TrEMBL record:
<dbReference type="InterPro" id="IPR011032">
    <property type="entry name" value="GroES-like_sf"/>
</dbReference>
<protein>
    <submittedName>
        <fullName>Alcohol dehydrogenase catalytic domain-containing protein</fullName>
    </submittedName>
</protein>
Length: 56
């Protein structure tokens, strides 16, 4: 399964992973889009957003 992670301003990673938990599922995506407002987070142009120091 392919995945993308957002790691910070202009930093995203595409990787391949496998199901690790019995509660996970693979879904087929046939179309996707990104909203223009999402690009503000990617480019770092959103004011008042700080990097979280806590790990999930």
């Amino acid at each position: 399964m392919k995945a993308v992670s957002f790691n910070g301003m202009s930093d995203s990673k595409r990787f391949t992973t496998a199901i690790q938990e019995s509660t996970e599922a693979i879904v087929r995506i046939t179309a996707a889009a990104i909203c223009g407002s999402d690009l503000h987070f990617y480019l770092g142009t959103t004011s008042g957003v700080r990097k979280c120091s806590q790990k999930p």
